[in-house]
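agent> fetching stored inputs for the glutamine docking request
agent> found them:
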Amino acid sequence: MNKRQPVKLIFVTGGVVSSLGKGILVSSLGLLLKCRGLRVTIQKFDPYINVDAGTMSPYQHGEVYVTDDGAETDLDLGHYERYLDVSTSQANNVTTGRIYNSVIQKERRGDYLGATVQVVPHITDEIKTRMLELSGTGEYDVVLIEIGGTVGDIESLPFLEAMRQIIIEKGKKNAVNIHLTLLPYIKSAGEVKTKPTQYSVKTMLSIGIQPDILACRTERRMTRDLKKKIGLFCNVEVDSVIESRDAETIYEVPLLLSKEKLDEIVLEKLFIHAKAPYLNHWIEIVDRIKVPADGKVKIGICGKYTEYQDAYKSIIEAFVHAGAAHRVRVELEWINAEHVERDGPEKYMKAINGLLVAPGFGDRGVEGKILAAEYARTQNIPFFGICLGMQVAVIEFARNACGIKTADSTEFKPKTKSPVVHFLPGQREKTEKGGTMRLGAYPCRLKPGSLAHRIYGSEFIHERHRHRYEINNSFIEELEEKGMVFSGKSPDNHLMEIMELPGHPFYIGCQFHPEYRSRVTTPHPLFHAFVKASKDYRNEHQSQVKEAAEKA
Ligand code: GLN
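agent> prediction call returned; pasting tokens
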């Protein structure tokens, strides 16, 4: 793009209902623009008052996504990173809480020189500053800004007002609004209905915003007539009414939107000259996801939020990426840790090809996770433990292989005699919960020749963390004596980052969260290796079953 061009802004809002997939739309458009050679980033504005997503329950808000710089963010940032293959930061996720926090701090400092501090202009100005922050860095040609919530909510009004002002100030050549709405299909009428979209655009107009492009989420194909009708009633050119149809996989959405020419329309409206998009690599991956030539691999995920899978969003996606690399569909079998506690592991684990013990907080279901880890260890089922999953594996090994019967974590049993897992230095004293864990990317050194070293193919790695507890170093000797290897450590050797069991076909746990770093085009090495091990396990056991059948 011509370097003298101002940075272009694309605001994406949502209407009618929530969960229309704004995050996927923004990520897909970002990818299409990136594949045209543009430098792109995405920012998300969330209307809630929490300063960040770190204090929110996964039941209410899904996974907390952690960036390299340690921000605890909305899970949509995960989509941005996975699609665009870029790293986001604190500046990419702004909440109402963060805005108010900074305005109130300024007021206390006296920065407003006696003014009455109000939503307009003080809060809206603060929002505008954040919305323009990334365009000021010189690193991007286009900044996409997703505004959370649904138009019409009280909470998102200041964000919309800030957006309106920016569009007026920058001009339509430099800033546009894409509004994502829903076209419900009413079965009894056999028709797709446009009224909710019309009302949603009316709501936008009532606050002074005319959407430039309408993306319509629909189960059915949109006819040209339907687009004309919507365009006419919503003051949008017919060619700027885009169909956003349900896709077989979220990774197909960029390809569908490209067919609808969304990126071309955006370039035209913003007067951007860019080359044709290079999408071949993406087409290949979508093809692998849709047609897994090597069949299915069944992986059990043992956790406590199993009925609400958004809590494990990045893990689920990391399996899609690794599955595509091995040409298999990873079928996830959700194993509720409390059920394992109640019924024992066999019932839930006999048909799986690999077990992942998920991250988590608190003692609910932990004994079930310990039983699951033991079953995987003793039955030679590939095992992968993430964060709490690694801690659980160490507790299990301490209890059952080292004979330390009272082994536990002080997170679950503060007074345990054998605190195999305990507070990280400095964590005990922390009283505030928000943003106080060990967060973000830290370096780790891998033991030459270990499984971890072979998987990563390098000695130094950086991975993202989110934890308060760690493996207690006073138990390391005993654990190592019985065969556990700590193959990844912080460079000062104090923190155990990866553990593995050499005698087992695949048994590995990590204190960090590899799932945050898996990308569509570059699956995470640990997920890649774990899916491979699970696929091998499946193949071996398939042939055993076949052999037995042939003998009979
Ligand atoms: N609760 C554990 C800790 O704080 C594990 C955290 C996690 O799994 N993210 O260390």
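agent> quick read of the result: The radius of gyration is 25 Å.
agent> awaiting further instructions
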